[in-house]
Amino acid sequence: MSEIKPIRREDLKPGEFLCSYCTARCCRYFALPIETPTTWTDFDHMRWYMIHGKTAVFVEDDVWFLVVFADCVHLDGHMCGMYENRPNICRTYNTDDCEYGDEGVYDKFFETAEQVWEYAEAVLPPRERNEANALGLPVLHGV
Q1: Which of 104, 109, 112, 119 minimizes the number of CB atoms within 10 Å of its CB?
Q2: Whole-structure pTM value
């Protein structure tokens, strides 16, 4: 695979495509909006998402997103291996607003279930004693 050299959008020559200079960030994950968490249960669900590996949660413009990191199976290096038959979501996506050159800075970004839980502890009122068990945490007997 050849090395990809960065270029500024405004330096593209007529007929050149930004994708030729990109690492295909848009093809290496997908992000779905999720409900804004407001309760301990909401944050516990988010924690459950996070323990399934290769996931993250971010907030941008007050919208919460679940990120699933997974390369498209048709990614060929940094280009689409099924370009002519790609899904409509890929067809309508364009480089005008893509992430090329984006630093990936979000309002909030959580990489682990522990970070999610620490945030919940910082923003929610303290849990009631019986609420801890309502979250499905294991109860240890005779330890």
Answers
A1: 104
A2: 0.77
